[in-house]
Design brief:
Layout: H1 5-16, H2 21-31, H3 34-42, H4 50-57, H5 62-67, E1 69-70, E2 73-74, H6 76-100, H7 115-125, H8 131-147, H9 155-166
Antiparallel strand pairs: 1-2
Helix pairs in contact: 1-2, 8-9
Length: about 170
């Protein structure tokens, strides 16, 4: 029932490495701080009552937000459409994984461990139209790369987002 891929992976990773539940939750929260900026960019596109806007905002994930970009604004219909498809696929895939995932063995044997980095690179490529965007992406990438071996999961992403914002 959870529609939060990176947070789910962060929690599973921390717990799998013997980390405390509090550390796992903290990692997920820190990783999802990026949605503050996403929420600010999406808010003007949402219409209707507070309850409706809140429900629609739940569909603003990395992929739906990237697909919804149009001339510096968020296209609400694209955001909602992509978000619904992603939510159904993610939750359905999670159920399928719980029920039959062990039959696959190690996902790394199929290269599935490279799926999320490849997805995020593809999303990034669609956003690099200006020099300013390329500078921000490079700054964020370098910060995350430098901090990943030094900080707990989630913190390099937060630091990278702050660095990209400054850039």
């Amino acid at each position: 029932t959870t529609f939060a891929g990176s947070a789910q992976f962060a929690v599973a990773s921390v717990l799998d490495d013997g980390g405390a539940v509090a550390a796992a939750v903290a990692a997920a929260v820190l990783l999802n701080l990026r949605y503050l900026a996403v929420g600010v960019s999406v808010a003007p596109s949402l219409r209707g009552s507070a309850a409706r806007r809140l429900a629609e905002a739940q569909l603003a994930v990395d992929e739906s937000w990237a697909v919804a970009q149009r001339d510096g604004r968020v296209d609400r219909d694209r955001l909602i459409g992509a978000g619904l498809v992603l939510m159904l696929c993610w939750c359905g895939g999670t159920v399928a994984g719980v029920v039959g995932g062990s039959a696959l063995g190690d996902p790394a044997d199929y290269g599935l461990d490279a799926m999320f980095p490849a997805l995020f690179l593809a999303l990034l490529a669609g956003q690099l139209h200006t020099r300013r965007a390329r500078t921000a992406a490079l700054a964020g990438g370098l910060i995350a790369l430098a901090l990943t071996p030094l900080l707990p999961p989630g913190l390099p992403i937060v630091a990278a987002a702050l660095g990209a914002l400054v850039a």
